[in-house]
Every structure is written in C-alpha cells, then in structure tokens.
Amino acid sequence: MNRRLFAVILLVSLLMVLLAISGCGSKSETTTPEQQTEETEVTETEKETEAEVLDVGETASVEDGKVSVSKVTVTNDLASPEANALLLTGEAGESTNSSQAPSAGNEFLMITFLYKNTGSDISTGVKPVDLTLEDGQGKQYSLVVTNGYGGLYNAQPIDAGKEASVTAVYEVPTGEKGLVLTFQPFGGEAVMFKIR
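The chain above was modelled as a monomer; its predicted structure follows.
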C-alpha cells in the first residue's frame, strides 16, 4: 500500500511540474474588440496630432509659452525700411542691414513670430536651432544672416508674462509653394506652420 501511495503521489507531483513548466514561456493574451478599438483610436489620434499644421496667425501652446507665426513678408532687399523695421530691436551693436539681394530666381521670406512667455522664468523664446523650413519635397532652407540681434534674427530673452516678436529670414525660390516651418525647442514637441 505504501508503494502504491508513493507512486500516486510521485505521479501527481510529476503532472503538476509538467503543467507548471508548460504554462511558462508562452503568455497568451486575448484582446477584446473594445480594447482593440481603444488602441486604434489612441494611435489615430496621436498621428493626427503629429500631422497638424497650423496656418499663419494660429497659436500653439508650447512649454512655458505660446507661439504663432504672425506674418510672412516677401522682399528682395533686406536694407529696405520695412525689412529693417522687422529685423532690428534697437539693441547696442546693431546696424541697419546693407543692401543684399537674393540670388537670381529667389526671394527673401521674412517670417515673423509672436512668442508669449507664460512661464515664471525668463525664456529664450524662438532660437535659430529650433527652426526648420522645408518645401514639399523635404528640401531644407538655411537662415539668412542679418544685422539683427544675434546675427540671425532679433531673438533676445523674454521676461515672464511678456511677449515679443522675432523675425527669421530665408532665401527661397520665387513663389515657392508647400513651405512648412517647424518650430521644435530642445526637448519639446514640434509645432508646424504652413507658410505658403
């Protein structure tokens, strides 16, 4: 009888060990149709958010601020009074821009931003490294150096609760369409603006 009891206990123990081993390693999860729908909706919403492109005049909330492209000005002369009014801040060391013409078949595109610092500390606002201008084929355009504050455009620190305008200049083919400007502060989310 002891042998029989021992054999039964051994057999049951072996079966339990085999069941435990067969259950390890393969984790079977089932998703209900509701879970699949929720996951799909979240993914589609995230894609829509990433793809949103704002128009000139629309405002986006960014970390500690709000930013918009307030206007786009086309010029063939950065020394014009209108261009200097957008580019210069009156800071020490600035001088008016000398007459500079774009290459044949090109024009200067002056993109003016309005940045409001909603944080509690001084903000750098919009910086050159935060900007990328691309056409519909992915070609990127470089900022044009001007005599404004900082050499690229009139960016200066913005006190908490204040707002300021900054203007960036790009040289692009005359009448170029499909231009999108991306503003992406270091470590922040990208905001895209349809320029034209």
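Residues 42-49 have pLDDT under 50 and may be disordered.
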